[in-house]
Design goal:
The chain has helices spanning about 35-45, 75, 80-85, 130-140, 150-160, 165-175, 220-225, 260-265, 280-295, 310-320, 345-355, 360, 375-390, 420-425, 425-435, 445-450, 465, 475-480, 485-490, and strands spanning about 20-30, 55-60, 65-70, 90-100, 110-115, 120-130, 180-185, 190-195, 205-210, 210-215, 225-230, 235-240, 245-250, 270-275, 275, 300-305, 330, 355, 365-370, 395-400, 435-440. By secondary structure, it is of the alpha+beta class. It has 2 domains: about 25-255, Aminohydrolase, N-terminal nucleophile (Ntn) domain (Glutamine Phosphoribosylpyrophosphate, subunit 1, domain 1), CATH 3.60.20.10; about 275-450, Rossmann fold (3-Layer(aba) Sandwich), CATH 3.40.50.2020. The strands form 5 sheets. A 7-stranded antiparallel beta sheet has the order 3-2-4-1-10-9-11, covered by helices on one side. It binds adenosine monophosphate.
């Protein structure tokens, strides 16, 4: 199995940012032969959602088995007989990326708890915005946390519920959560998939020979030969057990607000998220970007920043009627062992990952398209590289609007001080990045690419990155701003890893 992944951009990570924000993929399969092997394949297709660690939990009718590893799915689960290591007809899995501070084995999922009613394994994609608050409350009541992961709080809440039935306990726990989450849980009887009340994080239901499968993205269903049934809806809990498949609505009804950054960067291009092809949306972003930002410049070639900028650059080139060329070549064999997240090595990291293709660039007026610009670190180096390869002019276009606000729902974004567009005008950004011209897609353009017009009173997507419009309150942040010691005390635990 290849270690390459198109979305992996370790140089963009900030090792000093010790937040607990997670990017992850989840998967689960109910009552199927070789459940753990199928789960490993599903996780392999979700590798872009997290490259740091992965894990699988299976249930064999009597016992739960779990394996959790640092590193890639292929290394951890690619060899050996998984049906011996992780036997049973039910399994769930998780692939995870966290920022430096939270990266140790105790935080790797699936998490497991032995509850009054039996075992429970849990895989969680997303981030709870009231985790520190819940954690403090649970610790004061005597809970002993083994990890710093917000997912563990969910287990404690389930364990403490006094409701008689398991599903009611689970529901009572869910009702205390705030933020973005897609969960896949497995008990000795059930496989459960849940999406947060706004549907911020994605989760789909698939069918594998009549059995239920849950996955973060449809590309994992394609990988295992399952058919796509439907998205789990926002605020929906789907339960597979010997009664069949049942749907529950544990929350008051509200309008969905899925995360728009899944379309901009995070999801794989061949996935269909909330009924929309990621690839098609990205191409439309590029098309619209060309309409919005081609005036006043003359270009020879459109070059994507690979790989995440490719679909948008294609749409851009088609709309602008200019040649699309691979002017930058991506090395797919950049393993994590090479790139340690220190500043100097990150510098080297970009050169190891991307190389200029002089035959395309020399003497040309080049228009570079990237999917998004976060800190600008990657862009500065790419622009320098393209100039050094002899480009006559370098114009940069971002297929997302300016990223001005951090995320708290499971996408790894730095604080505001480090977000380039939050601190500079477009003209300043052009100077900082050393480009002849700079342009961003508008928020209207992004909604157009989604076949929508933004309803400002009730926005259809979670789009705070560009608008500052957060779909939930941010309880931990509000408390932390008033009371710094809470965050410091909670995070002090990290040092012990
Ligand atoms: P930066 O150097 O911080 O501006 O990073 C921008 C690059 O990182 C772009 O090429 C994006 O494709 C990629 N990127 C955007 N968002 C993320 C994210 N949340 N995690 C990792 N990479 C990202």
């Amino acid at each position: 199995m290849s270690h390459a992944h198109e979305h992996w951009s370790p140089p963009a990570r900030d090792p000093d940012d010790d937040s607990l924000r997670l990017e992850c993929g989840v998967f689960g399969v109910y009552d199927t032969a070789e459940a753990s092997g199928i789960t490993a394949l599903g996780l392999h297709a979700l590798q872009h959602r997290g490259q740091e660690a992965c894990g699988i939990a299976s249930f064999d009718g009597q016992r739960f088995h779990t394996e959790r590893h640092m590193g890639y799915v292929g290394d951890a689960f690619g060899g050996g007989d998984l049906s011996k290591r992780l036997p049973g007809r039910h399994a769930i899995g998780h692939t995870r990326y966290s920022t430096a501070g939270g990266s140790f084995l105790r935080n790797v999922q699936p998490m497991f708890a032995d509850l009054e009613a039996g075992g429970l394994a849990l895989a969680h994609n997303g981030n709870l915005t009231n985790f520190l608050t819940l954690r403090e409350q649970l610790v004061s009541e005597g809970a002993i946390f083994q990890s710093t992961s917000d997912s563990e709080a969910i287990l404690h809440l389930i364990a403490r519920s006094r409701r008689p039935k398991f599903l009611d306990r689970f529901t009572e726990a869910l009702q205390q959560l705030e933020g973005g989450y897609a969960l896949v849980a497995m008990t000795n009887k059930k496989l459960i998939g849940v999406r947060d009340p706004l549907g911020i994080r994605p989760l789909v239901l698939g069918d594998l020979h009549g059995r239920a499968v849950f996955a973060s993205e449809t590309c994992a269903l394609d990988m295992i030969g399952a058919t796509f049934v439907r998205d789990i809806e926002h605020g929906e809990m789907v339960v597979a057990d010997d009664k069949g498949l049942r749907s529950f609505r544990p929350f008051p009804a509200q309008q969905a607000r899925p995360c728009i950054f899944e379309y901009v960067y995070f999801a794989r291009p061949d996935s269909v998220v909330n009924g929309r092809s990621i690839y098609e949306v990205r191409k439309r972003m590029g098309r619209r970007l060309a309409q919005e930002s081609l005036t006043g410049i003359d270009i020879d070639v459109v070059v994507p920043v690979p790989d995440s900028g490719v679909p948008a650059a294609l749409g851009f080139a088609q709309e602008a009627d200019k040649p699309f060329e691979m002017g930058i070549i991506r090395n797919h064999y950049v393993g994590r062992t090479f790139i340690q997240p220190t500043q100097g090595e990150r510098e080297l990291g970009v050169r190891m990952k991307l190389a200029p293709n002089r035959s395309v660039l020399a003497g040309k007026k080049v228009l570079l398209v990237d999917d998004s610009i976060v800190r600008g670190t990657n862009s500065v180096r790419v622009v320098r590289m393209v100039r050094e390869a002899g480009a006559a002019e370098v114009h940069l276009r971002s297929a997302s609007p300016p990223i001005m606000w951090p995320d708290y729902y499971g996408i790894d974004m730095p604080d505001r001080e480090k977000l380039l567009a939050a601190n500079h005008t477009v003209e300043e950004i052009a100077r900082i990045l050393g480009v002849d011209s700079m342009g961003y897609l508008s928020v209207e353009g992004l909604y157009w690419a989604m076949d929508a017009v933004r309803d400002d009173a009730h926005p259809q997507y979670t789009d705070h990155y560009f608008t500052g419009d957060y779909p939930t309150r941010l309880l931990d942040k509000e408390i932390a701003e008033g009371r710094n010691e809470l965050v410091e005390r909670q995070l002090s635990f990290l040092v012990d890893a």
